[in-house]
Write a structure and sequence with these properties.
The chain is built from 18 helices and 16 strands. It has two domains: 201 residues, 3-Layer(aba) Sandwich (Rossmann fold), CATH 3.40.50.300; 171 residues, Rossmann fold (3-Layer(aba) Sandwich), CATH 3.40.50. By secondary structure, it is an alpha/beta fold. Helix 6 links the parallel strand 3 and strand 4. Helix 4 packs across helix 5 and helix 7 packs across helix 9. The N and C termini lie far apart (54 Å). The strands form three sheets. It has a seven-stranded parallel sheet with strand order 3-4-2-5-6-1-7, sandwiched between helices. Strands 10-11-9-12-13-8-14 form a seven-stranded parallel sheet, with helices on both faces. Strands 15-16 form a two-stranded antiparallel sheet.
């Protein structure tokens, strides 16, 4: 907490208003380093306060005398950019600073208008930020801080050249930081090449997800009907992950036919469609949201009670990212992580659980209820 007491009054007030007690492990490790001006590579599980770990030092180090853009946060998805922007607005309240978001697919003329009175801090997707720089509408000559959020998604061949171009357009004496829930070796290596003597901080001891992990075994062709049965047996706010847009579309149509309303979120969704799907989900218009992994990256939905791996995750990192959406730090309740697996996938899932130290329980649905084999055996007796 001593780090919070060192911050500007408006940040201390925002901290008190937010009702946080202590810093999370990643915040404890990263904030002092960033305040010192060091470059940082930070890894911490999903939902452990990484955004504030970099946002508080950025806001503390802004120069009020410079009415220009001073910090840029790069993020992998529209939704993550919008969430970061919400945090910026919350934490700049009571200060003279302002932030703005810049995402692909949105009206570029409106974004250019935003830049006529430059924000001090911008959050955006790399493609759109780079486009505005090339148009000479986003002036980078006063930018001294660049943050790469969900770095394992951005420092990949598809995005790395764009990120490099953005970095080159800033001051040579810049500060950089990268944060991610998982830190593959390739990401760490690429980040180190972009930075000056970065300090790597890991907070694996961060509070674990409060979620309960269960699974159902079925044939691949029966996964969709199993998804329906799980959603009907536990009709709470649910985010279900599908492997690709094709699977998601088929699932959406089948669920609609069976009168289970669901929102859809994938990379080909238009900006308005994405916003409508999220708004409907958050408001409770539909309690099920189907999403691909890219679209749901960084998604923070309050009171999310259930995550379903409808299609098996590609690897353990993906399992961690998806599962981390529920039972998050600071959220009420435990949350439920559900995997729908074939017999072959069951072996892989058990391996993930062992490596992650997660207790995994096999379940089935009987008479519309989720239960264990033992509970099913006793079902007749209790009736």
């Amino acid at each position: 907490m001593t780090e919070i007491k060192k911050l500007s009054p408006f940040l201390q007030q925002a901290w008190e208003k937010a009702g946080f007690a202590d810093l999370t492990p990643i915040q404890e490790k990263a904030i002092p380093l960033l305040l010192e001006g060091k470059d940082v590579i930070g890894q911490s599980p999903t939902g452990t306060g990484k955004t504030l770990a970099y946002l508080l030092p950025i806001l503390e180090r802004l120069d009020p005398s410079i009415k220009q853009l001073q910090a840029v946060i790069l993020a992998s998805s529209h939704e993550l950019v919008m969430q970061i922007t919400e945090e910026i607005q919350k934490w700049t309240a009571g200060s003279e600073y302002k932030g703005a978001s810049f995402i692909g697919g949105a009206n570029i003329k409106r974004q250019v208008e935003k830049l006529k009175k430059p924000p001090q801090i911008a959050a955006g997707t790399p493609g759109r930020i780079h486009e505005l720089i090339k148009m000479k509408k986003m002036k980078m000559h006063q930018v001294k801080t660049i943050i790469i959020d969900e770095g394992d998604q951005l420092l990949v061949p598809a995005h790395l050249p764009t990120v490099q171009q953005i970095i080159k357009s800033t001051l040579s004496e810049r500060q950089m930081a990268l944060f991610s829930a998982t830190l593959p070796e390739a990401t760490e290596t690429a980040a180190k090449e972009l930075m000056k003597d970065p300090v790597v901080v890991r907070a694996e001891d961060a509070p674990k997800s409060q979620a309960e992990h269960i699974y159902f075994v079925c044939e691949q062709r029966d996964k969709l009907s199993m998804l329906e049965r799980v959603v009907r047996a536990n009709p709470v706010k649910t985010l279900a992950f599908m492997r690709d847009i094709g699977n998601l579309t088929v699932a959406s149509e089948k669920l609609e036919y069976d009168r289970i309303p669901a929102g859809v979120l994938h990379s080909d969704s238009g900006k308005q469609d994405r916003e409508a799907a999220l708004k409907g989900f958050r408001s409770g218009k539909h309690s099920l949201l189907l999403a691909t992994d890219v679209a749901a990256r960084g998604l923070d939905i309050k009171e999310l009670q259930q995550v379903i791996h409808a299609d098996f995750p590609a690897d353990m990192d993906q399992y961690v990212h998806r599962s981390g959406r529920t039972g998050r730090l600071g959220s009420e309740g435990t949350g439920l992580v559900v995997s729908l697996v074939t017999e072959r996938e069951e072996r892989e899932l058990k391996k993930y659980a062992r490596e992650l130290g997660v207790e995994l329980q096999k379940k089935l649905i009987y008479h519309g209820e989720i239960m264990s084999e033992e509970e099913r055996a006793n079902f007749g007796k209790r009736r």
